[in-house]
Amino acid sequence: MSGLLRKAMLFACTGVFAASSALASVPSPADSEVPCGLALVGTTGGVADARGQFQIVVRDLAHNPIAGSSVVIDFNACSADIRVCSAQPVSGVTADCSGAVGSITAVTDPTGTVVLRVVGGARNTATNTPGAGFKCATVYADGVNLGNINVAAYDENGAGGVNPADVSVWLPDSFAFPATYVGRSDFNCSQTINPADLSLLLGASLGGASFASCASYCH
Q: What pTM did the predictor assign?
């Protein structure tokens, strides 16, 4: 084999390895895990309600977890009624208040996972208050679109924590379905608003873990 041919093969192999290495660090939507929906919660004693906990797992095309991936949940298409807190109490979760609503960011652990609770609420203060539709938020990992996610809000009116007032304003959303669907009141991400959602809201209202709304919303 001539020296020129050996060099050409070496360069080709090097290129293949470099391409493989690059692909290994690129998030794959098909291999990653994004939940159907999330529920914005309040806090008690500065701790975010565990009812809002969910996780996102970022993996590459070979189904390998990507550690240190920057995960962003962009809420800006949810501007009809959704609000997020400018200061998120969960360690490692930061809010960016640019845009119509804002976004939150967290970094994956060695297993490619972020475990999140997002504090925020809705602007549902009266019957027929307009709201965002199904899966209004978008999840990104290192800039790659992993898919959309529904955004519900136990703190329906965005004030005073989660309490019977939130149940009161949730009820018209249920009665209006299917003529009008709003994602804020669909806590189990079924794309329907029904007694199952009411049960979850009552649990949050009576559980005492969302006693307070956030002190400052992004918008």
A: 0.89
